[in-house]
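User: Predict ABC transporter ATP-binding protein's structure from this.
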Amino acid sequence: ELPSITGHVKFENLVFEYEPGRPALKGINIEAEAGQSIALVGHTGSGKSTIMNLLCRFYDPVEGRVLIDGTDIREVTIQSLRSQVGIVLQDTFIFSGTIRDNIRFGRLDATDEEVEMAAKAVHAHDFILGLPQGYDTEVQERGNVLSMGQRQLISFARALLADPRILILDEATASIDTETELKIQEALKTLLAGRTSFIVAHRLSTIRGADKIIVLDHGRVMESGNHEEL
Ligand code: ATP
Ligand code: MG
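Assistant:
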């Protein structure tokens, strides 16, 4: 179990390969203090998503370990890990069902009030009320009721409601209109407050806001520091 963790995360000498002899990570050391926001940047194929895959235990490392509050994540149940590590992916996952169900995903016990509070906090409430049936509007997995930006805000509301100590965010690269973009930036601040976060960052605004920027190249950390230092 991971009882009431603070959210300190350490990637210790991580080595990983998807295919024998082709290492995707070649000895990664990254430390995040509880509550820090870490931006991961680097070219395509540099290993950003792979590090996040290991934190989620979608794979286990070949060498090294991932520690949360000093505990190797291989020593805790997957269920316990999932409750503490939230993930917001680039291709925001919307399933067929109501907006309310989509936000409650992962917190099925949440009340309507809690759902609305989460939506308000990430500035999604107003556009939801503007939909034909508000929170009861049915959306489809691949439907176009929601714009990309709106999908992102729904996924932020979902993550906020789930309230994990550690949050992984693979920032969308899709172009989003300026108004939604500003809402997303605001929402992101709310979502990250008080959590340890790892953001695969594409937006300069996100990178600037991070406590630490990790520059990856071919499975290695090339540079790290904050925006002023780099
Ligand atoms: P991007 O910016 O394109 O998302 P990334 O930094 O997230 O790139 P990774 O997805 O971590 O990069 O990939 C690191 C290396 O591992 C690359 O060489 C990639 O081809 C390889 N790789 C990633 N996923 C797999 C997989 N499922 N099977 C085999 N090789 C993989
Ligand atoms: Mg990736």
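The first strand starts at residue 9 and ends at 19.
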